Automatic annotation (TrEMBL):
Entry coiled-coil feature ranges: none
Keyword Membrane: no
InterPro entries: Ald_DH/histidinol_DH, Ald_DH_C, Ald_DH_CS_CYS, Ald_DH_N, Aldehyde_DH_dom, LUC3-like
Source superkingdom: Eukaryota
Keywords in alphabetical order: Oxidoreductase
Protein family: Belongs to the aldehyde dehydrogenase family.
Pfam family, one: Aldedh
Species this protein is from: Canariomyces notabilis
Annotated Aldehyde dehydrogenase domain residues: 17-465
UniProt-listed Enzyme Commission number(s): 1.2.1.3
Protein name: aldehyde dehydrogenase (NAD(+))
Amino acid sequence: MQPKFYNVINDELRGAEKTHQVTDPRTEEELWPCPTATIADFEDAVAAAQAAFKTWSRTTVAERQALLVKMADVFKEHAEELSSILARESGKSKIMADIDIRASIAQTLYYSQNALQDEIQYEDNHAKVVATHIPLGVVCAICPWNFPLILSNVKVVSSLVTGNCVIVKPSPFTPYAVMKWVELSRGILPPGVFQVLNGGAELGAQMTLHPGVAKISFTGTIATGKRVMASCAKTLKKVTLELAGNDACIVCADADLAKTVPAVASGGFFNAGQVCVASKRIYVHESIYDEFLDRLVQEVERSYAIQEDPAAPSLFGPVSNKLQFDTVKGIIEDCKKNGYKIVTGGETQPRKKGFWLPPTIVSNPPEDSILVQEEQFGPILPILSWTDEDDVIARANLANAGLGASVYSSDLAQAERIARRLEAGGVWINHPERPNFGAFFGGIKDSGFGGEMGRQGLLSYVYTKCLHFKKD
Ligand code: NAD
């Protein structure tokens, strides 16, 4: 039976006159009709959220955390259904789609146990100041397509545990699993607290303008992020922007290649490179460059080859949509046009159907090439060489991006020294970039504004209010 999808407003399912269909990236088959929310739907959702906020905002942290446990149960009880929908719309293999579900469960349970508490900020014989955290109001979560559930869920659970109401807008490239998740969650929270609307740039822009919305939590490209921020300024909305990265990965001369090569391959090609913190530029010490490159090519050809069967246990997949497919193809063609050395991959039409591109490795393209300077967000990786620590750090630090980075070395003091000088929101040592629920995650420079996750992330979903007690 064909699944059906609805906007969820005030806990009710709502269809729409206008629908759109997503193209399955593996096969290019058209998927199911998905209702596009109207401006009237959005107004209704804001009104429902504002009404719900009056009582929801007065619930205790403990009450909200108990409900998050039930929210996690929705993922557990409907894991197969959600995973199969997610796999179809995103092109992920079954095991990759399952990762989205499992991580969403873990993320939800993390916030069911970790939240902001009141804290004494000052105390002496005369005064005591207690900081308390109060919710903002209605949050709109505007989401990308690469990890549809995890990246929506972090905004949703952060909003809910802090006492906000949340309206989630999935990417129009991957709306289905998020819509089904909100539909299946009905009845757990009071109506109006958790809603979903499907739409694209127009709906997103309306969210950033609406005076009844207190905060936008946005994840996406830098260009859209700048538009979101400019638009939010009109109503002084709080705004968190999680934007693109162009992560440098530095491999030192003494790195343990048996461990480093598989880790770098995973950093670059997990989910076909469609990860905000994928390793996107690999700098390898000249003394081990040739051996590293040989071993990386072998590892990538062995572990990240195209496997069309979604049941195959592959961490690699097609590019998730035609727009991104064309962008990555354009980067491969630019490498070919300029005569850069492609050591594996490089075909731009390896299969008759689907947005497939093979894992592609380019040896020593120029530092100013598009592949090195722009975020590729797909399965193509430049491998560059370095000799001098100051020089590689200068090349790694870009003026326009600073999301993540990674360093591989057997000398932890050297790795830490380099990590501390890398201008990025997170640096992973002897490990590919993988966010941790308990740790703040955000980009510096153009890669973001603020951040999410961990205790510090929750602070962006609240006002901090101080209660000043006078002592006699
Ligand atoms: P995008 O900017 O095209 O779209 C993101 C969302 O914004 C979508 O829901 C879209 O409908 C909406 N939108 C578009 N125009 C809008 C407007 N004017 N106002 C409000 N909303 C609007 O990004 P994308 O292609 O979906 O996502 C891929 C990008 O996201 C990559 O650059 C990737 O690095 C980045 N990303 C960053 C993180 C992070 O945490 N920093 C995580 C995942 C992805």
